């Protein structure tokens, strides 16, 4: 773990750096890539905001757009946010070595110390070898990778989450590590660390009357009332557990790589009618695997709900800090919280959730 002394030393060494100048340098490279390969636009509505993804060439489109397909919308001339995406390999546009050392990275989340301030957010994700930069004043983001061959499956499952998280957080929305299922009239937020049963719960509900928003990342708002917005129409499941959800077999996108990857489902491609873009929240559920056969609910405190939601969100999402904690706290404090004690009889899971929603 990085100590305060080390963080201070790094910040001192890099304080002369100009984050805006670095952003502009990378943007100039994007423009060169676009001039060489042409631009292709895709438009989406996320949390009520029209977003444009502008690709230099086509190489990244098939990796970065399927998870957002359920939110595709018509082209607009004045999008709230534009994200420019490019890779060096297909555009023949080389990214120079970064002007920072490896120990300038936040040890968990990827922020670059000395290249992030109130206006510019810069992060580098080692797992995807991807650079994400946002200029909040210009509502302009940049996403770069060396080559699409380096992109891991989870990047296709939840693309651009760093840029979306930082930008949305300035507009009263928070990207959280949580799933969500429900009805147009209301639903539940599924919170907890990896392996707690969120994905099993959310994906099982696709085979029921309930609708789906997400299994891993959701957008939430606390005002005027707690609301969840779908952002990625994907789901992930441990490869050794997919047989428990046979109705989803056709939706597995990486069935040839399950020896080294989780199963990645693109729900919109196979169950578009089951996705809701948003719904009001009526409760917080904390799944827990019990080993028993029956699924039950057990009332718990807001503190338990926060403990299941906040740490994993803060750890996973660059840019999540004090404001994120405040929004999550406000949201959870307005809702009843329950442990969802998961049984092995999966059909009971949506039945229990539907019963709860009918009483709210």
Topology readout:
Blueprint lengths: L3 H11 L4 H19 L1 E8 L2 E8 L4 H4 L16 E7 H4 L28 E6 L4 E6 L4 E6 L7 H5 L3 H9 L4 E10 L2 E6 L6 H7 L6 E4 L2 E5 L5 E3 L4 E4 L25 E4 H4 L7 E12 L6 E5 L1 H15 L5 H12 L3 E6 L5 H12 L1
Parallel strand pairs: 2-3, 3-6, 8-14, 14-16
Antiparallel strand pairs: 1-2, 4-5, 5-6, 7-8, 7-9, 7-10, 10-11, 11-14, 12-13, 15-16
Helix pairs in contact: 9-10
Characteristics:
six-stranded mixed beta sheet; alpha+beta; 2 domains; Rossmann fold; globular; disordered N terminus; about 30% helix; 11 helices; about 30% strand; about 350 residues
Poorly predicted spans: 1-16
Report the strand count.
16
Radius of gyration, in angstroms, nearest whole number: 20 Å
Percentage of residues in strands:
25-35%
**Secondary structural class:** alpha+beta
Distance between the termini: 43 Å
The CATH topology of the largest domain is: Rossmann fold
Average pLDDT confidence is 91
In spatial order, strands of the major sheet run 1-2-3-6-5-4
Largest sheet: 6 strands, mixed
Count structural domains. Answer: 2
Q: Which term fits the overall shape?
A: globular
Helix content: 25-40%
> Which CATH class of the largest domain?
Alpha Beta
Elements, N to C (H/E): HHEEHEHEEEHHEEHEEEEEHEEHHEH
* Second-tier CATH architecture of the largest domain: 3-Layer(aba) Sandwich
Q: What is the count of helical runs?
A: 11
């Amino acid at each position: 773990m990085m100590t305060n002394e080390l963080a201070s030393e790094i910040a001192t060494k890099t304080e002369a750096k100009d984050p805006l100048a670095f952003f502009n340098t990378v943007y100039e490279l994007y423009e060169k890539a676009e001039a060489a390969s042409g631009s292709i636009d895709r438009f989406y509505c996320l949390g009520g905001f029209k977003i444009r993804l502008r690709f230099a060439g086509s190489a990244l489109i098939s990796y970065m757009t399927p998870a957002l397909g359920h939110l595709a919308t018509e082209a607009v001339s004045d999008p709230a946010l534009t994200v420019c995406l490019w890779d060096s390999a297909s555009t023949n546009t080389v990214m120079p070595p970064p002007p920072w050392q490896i120990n300038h990275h936040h040890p968990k989340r990827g922020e670059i110390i000395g290249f992030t301030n109130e206006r510019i957010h810069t992060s580098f994700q080692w797992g995807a070898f991807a650079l994400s930069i946002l200029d909040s004043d210009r509502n302009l983001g940049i996403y770069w990778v060396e080559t699409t061959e380096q992109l891991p499956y989870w990047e296709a499952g939840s693309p651009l989450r760093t840029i979306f998280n930082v930008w949305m957080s300035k507009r009263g929305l928070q990207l959280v590590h949580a799933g969500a299922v429900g009805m147009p009239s209301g639903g539940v937020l599924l919170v907890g660390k990896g392996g707690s049963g969120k994905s099993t719960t959310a994906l099982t509900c696709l085979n029921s009357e309930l609708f789906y928003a997400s299994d891993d990342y959701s957008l939430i708002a606390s005002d005027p009332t707690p609301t969840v917005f779908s952002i990625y129409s994907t789901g992930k499941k441990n490869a050794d557990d997919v047989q428990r959800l046979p109705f989803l077999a056709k939706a597995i996108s990486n069935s040839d790589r399950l020896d080294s990857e989780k199963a990645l489902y693109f729900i919109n491609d196979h169950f578009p009618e089951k996705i809701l873009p948003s719904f009001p929240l009526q409760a917080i559920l904390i799944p827990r695997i019990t080993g028993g056969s029956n699924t039950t609910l057990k009332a718990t405190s807001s503190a338990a709900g926060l403990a299941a939601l906040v740490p994993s969100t803060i750890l996973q999402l660059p840019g999540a800090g004090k404001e994120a904690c405040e929004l999550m706290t406000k949201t959870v404090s307005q809702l009843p919280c329950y442990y969802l004690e998961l049984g092995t009889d999966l059909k009971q899971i949506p039945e229990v959730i539907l019963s709860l929603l009918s009483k709210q």
